[in-house]
Design a protein that fits this description.
48% of the residues lie in helices and 13% in strands. Strand 3, helix 8 and strand 4 form a beta-alpha-beta unit. Helix 17 packs across helix 18. It is globular, with a radius of gyration of 28 Å. The protein has 452 residues and is of the alpha/beta class. It starts with a helix and ends with a helix. Strands 2-10-9-8-7-3-4 form a 7-stranded mixed beta sheet, with helices on both faces. The protein has a two-stranded parallel ribbon with strand order 1-12. Strands 5-6 form a two-stranded antiparallel sheet. Bound molecules: ligand KET. Ligand KET binds next to helix 7. Important for the metabolism of amino acids and Krebs-cycle related organic acids. In plants, it is involved in nitrogen metabolism and in aspects of carbon and energy metabolism. Its cofactor is pyridoxal 5'-phosphate. Its EC number is 2.6.1.1. It is an enzyme of class 2 (transferase). Belongs to the class-I pyridoxal-phosphate-dependent aminotransferase family.
Length: 452
Amino acid sequence: MASKSFSSSSSSGCSPASDRRISVLARHLVAENALSSSPIYASPTSSANSVFAHIARGPEDPILGVTVAYNKDPSPVKLNLGVGAYRTEEGKPLVLNVVRKAEHMLVNDRSRVKEYLPIVGLADFNKLSAKLIFGADSPVIRENRITTVQCLSGTGSLRVGGEFLAKHYHQRTIYIPLPTWGNHPKVFTLAGLSVKTYRYYDPATRGLNFQGLMEDLGSAPSGAIILLHACAHNPTGVDPTPQQWEQIRRLMRSKALMPFFDSAYQGFASGSLDEDAQPVRMFAADGGELLVAQSYAKNMGLYGERVGALSIVCKDADVAGRVESQLKLVIRPMYSNPPIHGASIVAAILKDGNLYNEWTIELKAMADRIISMRKQLFDALRARGTPGDWSHIIKQIGMFTFTGLNSEQVAFMTREYHIYMTSDGRISMAGLSSKSVPHLADAIHAAVTRMK
Ligand code: KET
């Protein structure tokens, strides 16, 4: 409005309109003068008197904070077994060969541009991610009753799924296993869900508390959301057997409990992408609805690229389309649309038969190296006569061993041996190498014999 009257009056000389404009300007100038002659107050953002002065220092993250402490330690023998990140036998981070190849193809393709992706991400990536977790011949894909959206790795997929459920699903309670990945309760609480736990791990047997799990799911209110680790449960390394999964599925479907799978380790449990997807496929095959959060951080080593996907399986294609339209409304004000590079790498690998095969071989090699670390650590403890039954080290699967070491023993190992791990006694086996096994075994031996 203002600009309109400005342009019309500027072309008409000294009209009544321009007189009015001059007097409005004059009033502004007078007002500004009055302001500048008023006393000057101390700036509320001067460092002496910060408006944030009351803020207490927050705690470091229980997992990522371990790396922060590790980085500060000058010891040459220090070992980071905290975060679940794969290392080579030389203790170095690994960029898969197949990822290097795909990146090479991408940067050499001059037709590629850096335009925004759609809110739901790269279409190819989404289709191929659904195929990877549900299987190429899955009925949910054939019947088009699924929506898959690219998100910021596993964490972002869980968060978007959580916010969608908090907004549109009739039950706001999510049950997570006890214990679980430390970020789960925070992600879902901030998404607007109320978080409860179900029994999962039995410290006495260092195995699954299947009875406790079934009792707790059995007494959850109808429709409640149940967070399930698709495979390689973090931190325990303990998964249900296929028979137990079938019982869990039947119980959950009979009570209309909503499965929300967290699939952060597909391929890392057994070394086979298909085998590790079985629990998800079992639930998808019964025609019921479910959510899955996928991460490519571990299985493609794309940690910092933040590439993952959220899929929601619905009863029919029409519902899936409407669900997707609402997911877009969750994502747009959160981060607008996802980054292009990581998803392009994944899509390039998943759509090319040769690259895909190369990936499965490299993935299997990572999984095998972790299994060999389990064997070496177990043997090293046996050789030292370390008190206790350490067979869980070779029985547990995935990236982690849930050692059973208590927080004092962990603190002792960090202090005396410069070994960094989470205080719940979890060790990232992927951070271990043949060279560092003796050092870790010495530390565990000392911790259990001296810090009972
Ligand atoms: N789910 C689980 C079970 C999980 O262990 C992780 C990461 C994630 C999701 C998220 O990963 P993302 O990088 O967002 O795709 N876990 C390791 C790293 C971390 O804590 O961030 C860990 O437990 O060490």
